[in-house]
Write a structure and sequence with these properties.
Arc Repressor Mutant, subunit A, elongated, 228 residues, mainly alpha, 46% helix, 2 domains
């Protein structure tokens, strides 16, 4: 039985990439220990543990080395972990369970890029968002075609203006939707135009993007929704 597993190439040092969300739908297929092991394997290199022993993993998980080894095999079979030349590569994004195939009744496909995440919200607003707030913010991507980076720009602007309220972020996003702003580049041009208008006291603005229709929902009251 192996006693140590390597999580990075032997010559590689440094921090890993951005953390990915673990889809809870995997829990019934892998078991709680395998899910916890995956999360643990992703963060250990960030704290300098590039080659933990199975006994160390078992202690952290309050399990046994034999059970950890079985969980590791389950992660390999499901595509969470891949064996390389003398080390193990831990997937940055957990696979998504979709459809049905094989003994487990699931088909493994790679997860796509996420929209606005709790980490994004916390970085700019200083608090963790309720699920309905994230759903609301990501709605601008799904419904209005805005990129996640543009929504993050709205959070950043609200933070810089010391207006860390969801209602204020909404007012920014609604103004952008009305003016057809969709991308970060659109945001930069829009904000530059807005500054020029303030200087010129009433200069004509510019619309960007394909959809320039006003959002009907911008006049609705969302105070109850945001608790403001």
């Amino acid at each position: 039985m192996m006693r140590k597993i390597r999580l990075t190439p032997p010559a590689q040092r440094g921090a890993r990439g951005a953390r990915a969300r673990l889809y809870i739908r995997w829990m019934p297929h892998l078991g709680a220990e395998a899910v916890a092991l995956y999360e643990l394997l992703r963060v250990l290199p960030d704290v300098g543990l590039d080659a933990p022993e199975l006994e160390e993993l078992a202690e952290l998980l309050r399990s046994t080395p034999e059970s950890v080894e079985r969980s590791l095999e389950a992660l390999k079979n499901a595509g969470f972990v891949a064996e390389r030349d003398g080390w193990l590569e831990v997937a940055e994004h957990p696979p998504v369970a979709a459809g049905g195939s094989g003994d487990s009744g699931i088909e493994v496909v790679q997860a796509g890029a996420e929209g606005v995440t709790p980490d994004d919200y916390f970085r700019y607003m200083g608090t963790l968002p309720a699920p309905h707030i994230l759903e609301f913010l990501n709605g601008y991507c799904e419904r209005d075609g805005m990129t996640p980076d543009a929504v993050r720009e709205a959070l950043r602007i609200a933070s810089e203006r010391d207006a860390r309220r969801v209602g204020y972020v909404r007012s920014i996003l609604e103004r952008w939707v009305e003016r057809g702003v969709r991308t970060v580049e659109d945001v930069r041009r829009f904000e530059e135009d807005r500054r020029l208008k303030l200087v010129a006291e009433g200069g004509k603005g510019v619309s960007y993007g394909e959809n320039r229709s006003a959002a009907a929902r911008r006049k609705e009251g969302y105070e109850w929704f945001f608790g403001e």
